[in-house]
Amino acid sequence: FKLPSDSFKYLGWCDIEEHGVRGNQLLCPRVREGPSEEELFFRKEEHTLKKRKPVTDTEKWEKRLQENWENCAELNLSFQDLGDLYQVENFKRILRRLIRVEKLWLVDNSLTDLSAIRLPRCRELNVNKNHFTSFKQLPKIPQIQHLSLAENNIMTLSGISDFRHTPLESLILRRNPCEFQERYRQLVFSSLPNLKILDGIPKLPEDCSPPEVRFFYRMCTIL
Description:
Blueprint: H1 37-42, H2 57-67, E1 74-76, H3 85-96, E2 103-105, E3 124-126, E4 146-148, E5 170-172, H4 184-191, E6 197-198, E7 201-202, H5 211-222
Parallel strand pairs: 1-2, 2-3, 3-4, 4-5, 5-6
Antiparallel strand pairs: 6-7
């Protein structure tokens, strides 16, 4: 037996009538769009389709105002299950509107490239468990202070110096291939002099040891 809410399971909150909930009032909304009409037909779930009617420009503008992403300061868009290209595009459409967001979680969304996105006020960004392979694929985040990139596929530290001119204080790169690079911590801290914490560990004296001391350690290791 189908639950009374079954016919609404693929609808966004904007498509449900008679409520005044706005986007900046939701901390963990599901923004992934539902399957296409063709996909629902093959799933034999066409009963979930909302009856379509022509949408006027006024209704489009009202929906945009209701989403109100521009005024979100803290938002969790993790675990969206972005299985189709049109869902990814809708996801990026929302990201482009987050001009005031300060804390943003995008965990486990199979993201590969957000380089065209700019988050001018974002201070804390969590993109753990995605498919980034380079720092160049991250969004523009000039005010970033805390950045978490655990469990991606970042191979090298190339491009990390782009964050030198940001107020970045804490960086997490655990379970990325670059973590196994020789002198990993020293290279990160030399590229980011203002960084205070790497992978949850505060900056240590050996993380900024002078070249001759590092050379001496290497010689001792070889002997």
